[in-house]
Amino acid sequence: MSIFYTQSTFLPLLSVNIVLCVAACNNAEYEINGRCCPKCDPGKRVHKHCDEFSTTTCESCPIFTYSDIPNGFIECLPCSVCDTSDGLREKQACTVTSDTVCGPLPGYYCIDSLYNCKRAKKHSSCSPGQYIKQTGTEFRDTVCDHCPAGSYSDGTLCILHTDCESLHKTTIREGTDTTDAECRDRASLLTVTLYVCGVCLLILTVITVIIVWRKKKTKRGLNQVPTKKCTEPS
């Protein structure tokens, strides 16, 4: 009785081991229904699984699908679409053996690029008073920094303020980090002299006119004073 029990215990274990050994497929095979079938090459899919009489039947992946590894797929993988609304463009078209390769649009950079660029964002713009320290790339945003003292920018490059003194001009407005200094031509000594003389001459002319006018008015008033006629007594 004990011998029978021992045999009945080990026989199922033995059968399980045999099945596991049979079902252990190598890397060039895939398991289906307890049978190891040869895999299809990249660019193909399984049309019909193998059986005891025939090997695996494969066929090419349909358009807009691919398989990039030896496989036992009955359906190929769909090709990725590079959506411009996600800031993407197509760098490499999909083939039966490789997926579409997407890249960022000009002026954009990838923010999700573990295996393939899935989403991109527009490069940052530097503000007035800043300059582009590092230009943005496909995988990095623009890096901005503030312009040093004595310079200004519109958000691209820093430009030194105009030195009015070196141009022999007068500064009428100091430069800021966003605007340049404003200069004005200096008046020459001759110009200043002529200007002052002209003003003085104008003032003297006005004063002279006023004096002459008052004298004439006074003289006219004296001439208009009525005279009394003397009459002899009768």
UniProtKB/TrEMBL annotation:
Superkingdom field: Eukaryota
Family annotation (SUPFAM superfamilies): TNF receptor-like
Cellular component annotations (GO), alphabetically ordered: external side of plasma membrane
Subcellular localization: Membrane
Chief location of this protein within or outside the cell: membrane
InterPro entries to which the protein is assigned, alphabetical: TNFR/NGFR_Cys_rich_reg (IPR001368)
Topology relative to the membrane: Single-pass type I membrane protein
Keyword Kinase: no
Protein's GO biological process: defense response to Gram-negative bacterium; defense response to Gram-positive bacterium; negative regulation of alpha-beta T cell proliferation; positive regulation of cytokine production involved in immune response; positive regulation of T cell migration
Full protein name: Tumor necrosis factor receptor superfamily member 14-like
Gene designation per UniProt: LOC113080516
